[in-house]
Write a structure and sequence with these properties.
single chain; Growth Hormone, Chain: A
Length: 414
């Protein structure tokens, strides 16, 4: 009970900061479509064209384009400010999603779906923009910043939880394009509100002289882990939709995916209430690797209800993993490259989601809809292995330095 009260106080303290509630409301509204666009596109395209492989490939193309454009947009944000860059970029993304809707609605050739959805790459990294505001407001309070990062990850999971449910409800109740249309409206409205909060916006910075985060040995292993984690998300989403569809329960797919996000959201908020002495990424990745086996095993039972329970438990490892990774990114990235560094991690995540979406769709269509759940399990294991190799390499580089230092000290004493 005492820990719950302390956790509530920590989160209340965040929103007592001037302007925090207003920009949080805007970013939540703009972030909700992140959980809607992909599901809406997959359901809309698969329903119209009868192919999950095509739907997964189109979704993957949009995510891959976002991964390429994301760091470039973030660099512009660092240099010119959030409002000047994010709002025009949002307009481009909204027009792109509407173009996809029209292509599907009027049975345009398949290649037009890929061309139209590429413009979704202009969607700003709203989570990164929000985390940059917290980093600016709490730059001298690492404990409060940890709590803010946990809240942001929980917000990500909340939007991924509600987004698929809302998208599935709209596409199933009204018409197939309803989810995409609603997502476009919410994105634009949320970004208008978010960018209007100028008092909390980090100041633009001159062109950075710091090296690109891509050249940082400290960030590259984190990028690889985020990419593998993205495969977990992308493959799990498509595999779950295909599994539910095979049992005539497509409308329930969003609710089932929401349970995974619910588990992650709850775990993220609990993790934010803790005050860890340091990031523990290895433990988080190990937990994710173990828990992602559960949905694969549950799918083998053929029961959507059993799968839903497994996803709820498996999701509890994802938010702590992402919170820990983003905390490490903030520690290892120069202040004038912060948006770029965080966007690079999101780029890795989206690249992984794109690959996972394509791999999950291919496995569901060409192997089996149960085997498709092996893709996220394998990706989680890969993330753990990559981090383990990076840690071992880091230790091997540091040992000679320690030996040399001791040798010099001994020589001085002689």
């Amino acid at each position: 009970m005492t820990s719950l009260i302390a956790a509530a106080r920590g989160y209340r303290r965040l929103f007592a900061l001037p302007g925090a509630r207003a920009f949080t409301a805007g970013n939540l509204l703009a972030r909700l479509p992140v959980g809607m666009f992909s599901v809406s596109a997959v359901v809309m395209i698969a329903g119209s064209r009868g192919s999950y492989a095509l739907a997964g490939a189109v979704s993957a193309t949009g995510l891959a384009a976002t991964a390429v454009a994301g760091p470039w947009l973030a660099r512009l944000v660092d240099r010119h400010g959030q409002a000047r860059i994010a709002l025009p970029a949002t307009v481009v993304a909204v027009l792109s999603s509407l173009a996809l809707l029209l292509c599907v609605r009027y049975d345009a050739p398949d290649w037009t779906l890929f061309a139209a959805y590429t413009g979704i790459a202009a969607t700003p990294n709203i989570g990164g923009l929000s985390r940059a505001r917290w980093a600016h407001l709490l730059r001298d309070e690492p404990g409060a910043l940890h709590t803010a990062n946990a809240f942001e990850q929980a917000a990500d999971e909340l939007c991924f939880m509600l987004g698929p449910v809302l998208a599935s409800f709209l596409t199933g109740t009204f018409f197939p394009e309803a989810g995409t249309l609603a997502a476009a409206v919410l994105l634009l409205a949320g970004m208008l509100l978010f960018t209007a909060q100028r008092a909390t916006e980090p100041p633009p910075r001159a062109r950075s002289t710091a090296p690109s985060p891509l050249r940082s040995r400290a960030l590259l292993p984190l990028l690889a882990c985020c990419t593998a984690t993205g495969v977990v998300f992308g493959a799990m989403e498509v595999a779950t939709i295909a599994f539910a569809d095979a049992r005539g329960q497509r409308a329930a797919a969003g609710a089932v995916l929401a349970l995974q996000a619910a588990g992650s959201c709850a775990a993220g908020l609990a993790y934010g209430a803790l005050k860890p002495t340091g990031p523990r990424l290895t433990r988080c990745l190990a937990a994710m690797a173990v828990l992602m086996v559960l949905p694969w095993a549950a799918a083998g039972t053929g029961s959507l209800l059993v799968l839903a329970g497994a996803l709820l438990v498996a999701g509890m490892a994802t938010a702590p993993t992402m919170v820990t990774a983003m905390t490490l990114v903030q520690r290892r990235t120069p202040a004038d490259r912060l948006n770029e560094g965080m966007s690079l991690m999101v780029t890795g995540l989206l690249t992984g989601i794109a690959c996972g979406s394509a791999a999950g769709g291919w496995a569901a269509e060409h192997v089996s809809r149960v085997t498709a759940f092996a893709v996220p399990a394998a990706a989680a294991t890969l993330a753990l292995l990559v981090h383990g190799v990076a840690e071992a390499a880091q230790r091997s580089r540091s040992v000679p330095e320690l030996v040399d230092a001791r040798s010099i000290t001994d020589g001085d004493r002689k």
